[in-house]
Amino acid sequence: MLTRRHIRVKVMQCIYALTQAKDDSLKKQENFLQASIDNMYTLYLLMFSLFIEVHERASDQINLSSKKYLTDAADNLPNKEKFLNNKLLLQIVGNKSLSDELENRKLNNWYLNEEYVKIIYKEIIESELYQEYMAKPSSTYEEDKKLILDLFKNIIAPNEKIYEYFEDDKLTWVDDIPIVNTYILKQLKKVKESDLPSYFLPPLLKDSEDLEYANKLLTKTLLNNQKLEKEIEGKTPNWDKDRIADIDAILLKMAICELLNFPSIPERVTINEFLEIAKEYSTPKSSIFINGILDKLVKEYMDEGKLKKVGRGLL
After folding, report:
1. Sign (positive/negative) of CA torsion 225, 227, 229, 232?
2. Between the CA atoms of 239, 245, 250 and 256, what dihedral angle is there, to the nearest 10 degrees?
3. How far is CA 30 from the centre of its chain?
4. What is the CB neighbour count within 10 angstroms for residue 12?
5. Alpha-carbon gap, residue 87 to 315, rounded angstroms
């Protein structure tokens, strides 16, 4: 789920939090990094569990309507329980591995904040997507999948109330929401009726090397802060570290650290990745500024033999 770019952003957030708090505790930042990575998986589970809660809400509404004496719009549908029996929805709801993971992590957020489920459910049943789907008495797995995919893309993912809830819960989730939503969309597009329950519980990191990379990048950037500042100082005319945006300074230090300490990562990959992060998280001109400094440093390191890159994909 997490790519190397996402990991770089997580490390950047940790270093930024440290500089703002003026806290030089490396252990605390390592713990913050681990918690930030773990919390991203929690966010994924909470987003996915909304389907379970919406299904339960729909079931409750069907039970209530069966006890009413007056008719409503749902009574005119050819199959009132069609949404409840949506094959992909049942695949998610009946996934014991997913339910166990939610229970083990004590993720009962929607039970404690059911107003958000009500908001989502109301938007769903009032949508054209839902109305068109319910107009036919039956559907195939692919048609059921298309509905769930469209509901997530058009109603759940962009919902402002859900976004505000997550933003208030954990600060780092603001940056995680688009990543998690994009990943869930990919999951829903690729899911098959025959998929095992584990399909909905993907690994957060590709392998243990990703976590090692994250910790090493954080540790070496922090421990070599003064040395990295001198590297930047030599390539910046009229150097004044107080005038450089905090994020720019952090990204430069991280990029230099990666260039010098990660031989398996090509220098062009490092530069491109940090330029993309700068475009998203810093000022409009930051990427040009950072690119200029890194280009000078790479040429200098090559001339001095400091860049010792190994592996495939290298020039």
Report:
1. negative
2. -40
3. 19
4. 24
5. 50
Task: Compute the distance between CA of residue 141 and CA of residue 149 in angstroms, rounded to an integer.
Answer: 12
Token pair 């958000």 is found at 116
Structure tokens at 131: 């109305």
Q: What is the DSSP letter of 198?
A: G
Closest of 126, 107, 131 to residue 50, by C-alpha: 107
- The alpha carbons of the chain give a radius of gyration, in whole angstroms, of 24
By three-state DSSP, how is residue 284 classified?
coil
**CB 264, CB 25: distance < 8 Å:** no
Tokens 């993309």: give the residue.
276
Packing angle between helix 141-151 and helix 173-190, nearest 10 degrees?
Answer: 170
Instruction: Give the distance, in angstroms, between the CA of residue 262 and the centroid of all CA atoms in the same chain.
Output: 25
- 314: closest CA among 273, 263, 258, 272? 263
The total number of residues written for the chain in this structure = 315
Which residue type does 262 have? F
- DSSP H helical ranges for the chain: 4-21, 26-66, 87-93, 96-104, 109-112, 114-126, 128-134, 141-151, 160-169, 173-190, 208-223, 225-233, 246-261, 267-281, 286-304
C-beta separation of 62 from 84 below 8 A? yes
Q: What is the pLDDT along the chain (315 residues), one digit of tens a residue?
A: 899 999 999 999 999 988 887 766 788 888 989 999 999 999 999 999 999 999 999 999 988 876 665 455 566 777 999 999 999 999 999 999 999 999 999 999 999 999 999 999 999 999 999 999 999 999 999 999 999 999 999 999 999 999 999 999 987 898 899 999 999 999 999 999 999 999 999 999 989 999 999 999 999 999 999 999 999 887 776 545 555 788 999 999 999 999 999 999 999 999 999 999 999 999 888 999 999 999 999 999 999 999 888 764 443
The answer to pTM > 0.70 is yes
Which two structure tokens, joined as six digits, stand for 188?
A: 């829903």
